């Protein structure tokens, strides 16, 4: 028995020893501590904040600032290393306790993580149409606003700007969604704001453009025109880093081809002679080149400095900027000084941070339009004339019959300054309630102190100008925006299921108030001749002011679901309530849903050269309240008076001066988008393509009505029109790196069809200028008379008859323009106007390319537009001859001796050959432009160490230096803020040739 017991105990001991060894082995596997360092394969630099994950587990770690990591894992497991902008890499542990890993940069660069509003997603998981723009693509250009820098970089985004100092560009995302406003919504560090000329583009860290309804739906009623999300630079853990940069740019204005006095007088006398009118007594001893007098070489200075750093629990970033733009027209200029402080800190589960920007900008807003004045004024007019009040030359009856204004006189006699001091930023805090649950509070605040000062001195600048007293006007305004946001985010993985849920509530309140005052007969300092510009020195005081308020309350939610990295689902719902609408129509609901299918992750998909293939589809509804704060309410004027009774007693009275519409409601944009994302050759070659249909219903539009109805406060707004945009866009990019040489190129293509489905309110069309907006056609189509050559003799005039034999143009003479009698009524009237062409391009393209070798780099950006017809306002003035202005040099008018020409006979005093409402002044608006080209050089590291720098870069660049076009105006890429006359170039400030030299240093 004893022996048996011993045997049993011995067996148990062996079993215990065996299991102990197993447990020790398992315990040892679980307790292996692995340390190492993650570095870049290119330069060997440490990669901070890289993710190190044990494969098929939730066990992970993040590298510190020096790229070091520490993690516990089993010896037979695998580590997965990933980081934004780098290729994911797997390393088998194999009992190693120290593992140093180098990772390669990804072909898709640093755009893997995308902000989508109140959160972020990996770009590969996007189901909506979102474009990512590298910040350095904008910052390397000489721009004043963010919108200018986006040109040619993003499909579906049309930007038109100009070179006037402080000018802000017009931007449209996927066409015209309404009939009043095209500006997208800007979100900067979570603050609903604008990225206007007060904002420093050099502070940008990332920028995303949300183009379709599913991507933008989280912003609901304000996102119909698209959303641009910007994050500014933040500090990183490490020692203090200082970066300074400067850029100096020289700008030049393009010039018209205009006649000098000798050529001008020849044609001017001919025009008067042909009309049988006595000639002007031109001052042939004067030959003024007005472009030379008014235009000048411009200079832009752009200086930036930033300071950043941080520790384990907090980071900071500070920057300052000065931008000074001395314009290419005298008495124009723009100055901006800005400061920024971004900081954040954390303690346990709590974190807090702020983003604060302060800026002061000043613009010299020259009155009039010198772009037009330089060709309206005659070369025979001197710049200065002591016989005129103020001492400046301008038109004179019988000598120079023109009503052009002297820009040099205006620059002296009128001072107009616009100054804006703006503070904007946000304070946020987060509470990590659990590893999968986070609460965030965001308070945003923006205020702007606006000051407009205007002085009108004694003197004249145009013919027959009535005497006016000197006066000063000061206008002071202040705007305030307060934003309160509360969001709760749940994010967790359950095996192959990845679920994210966001719910939130926001409230925004806007206030604006303004006061203004005017005084006349200003005092003049007898010693200096300067005018006193303070309002207590003058008489005939006038004062006024107003105040307005608006509020927006919102509730929002978003669900994101990812199954096995193959099937993607995204749903968004937002409910907005606005004070701009009556109680019955205050609230609007804006839902969206989107789906994605990553075919490349399916087991049946086995195509070696395709590394990623995803199909997307989405539908969403967005709103828009493009109206003033009180449009649904009537306005009462209480300052009237009425005489009543036998005694003719004066009684106070009140009257409603503007018709109101209490039934106003939200515009609603319904957009469908289908798209594809394709990556080939290990994502070196990528293609993104989208097709969309966007239909805006209940478009808010002010319909013109007669003032005899009693309406005297602007056109009343109503929900009536329906607008549709259909489009296709794709972006193809390629990048390759071979040792020290890297190359990248991309081409983007956008085709858009705009159409007015209906105008509403029983109307079928709206005519503005030379355009018509008619149901079934695009907005702002050209609606003009059609020319049909020139009459060569009297016989042609008499034989030009309608179907009844009536001579259509009996008063014409040989050399006059023949117009088409479209309605066959035997005469040329407005009834003969027809839709002849479109101001909308058939497609637009952008081409971007860059290369680098060791310390040298090169990049360029081309843009192109095809299919648009534009109106040349310059030619409509200088080629008409019935009204005195300068003329275009080199013209060959019709004469009996010169009949083989398309330029009609010139004659003063009749509009027969000068009608601006004809197709004579419509031109092909096609163009290809080298928007940017730049070269840079980074000093080598061994040289930098000797001087104590970490980076030094020098660059040379040029903008708008090559333009291929048949357009005869200054710039085919002009901007017109009138939605209905987008294709009319009437004194638009051109984009300027700009040559820049830049330096950047960091230490």
List the helices and strands and how they pair.
Layout: H1 2-30, E1 32-40, E2 51-54, E3 60-62, E4 68-73, E5 78-82, E6 89-92, E7 101-103, E8 113-115, E9 120-122, E10 130-133, H2 135-139, H3 146-149, E11 157-160, E12 170-173, E13 185-188, E14 191-193, E15 204-210, H4 213-216, E16 227-232, E17 238-252, H5 261-275, H6 290-294, E18 298-310, E19 314-326, E20 333-347, E21 350-364, H7 370-376, H8 407-413, E22 414-434, E23 437-456, E24 471-494, E25 497-520, E26 539-563, E27 567-578, E28 587-598, E29 610-624, E30 635-644, E31 649-658, E32 667-680, E33 685-702, E34 717-738, E35 741-758, E36 765-768, E37 771-774, E38 781-784, E39 787-790, H9 794-799, E40 817-819, E41 834-837, E42 843-853, E43 856-866, E44 869-872, H10 873-878, E45 922-924, E46 927-938, H11 941-947, E47 951-965, E48 984-985, E49 993-1002
Parallel strand pairs: 1-7, 13-16, 44-48
Antiparallel strand pairs: 1-4, 2-3, 2-5, 5-6, 8-9, 10-15, 11-12, 13-14, 15-16, 17-18, 17-49, 18-19, 19-20, 20-21, 21-22, 22-23, 23-24, 24-25, 25-26, 26-27, 27-28, 28-29, 29-32, 30-31, 32-33, 33-34, 34-35, 35-42, 36-37, 37-38, 38-41, 39-40, 42-43, 43-46, 44-45, 46-47, 47-49
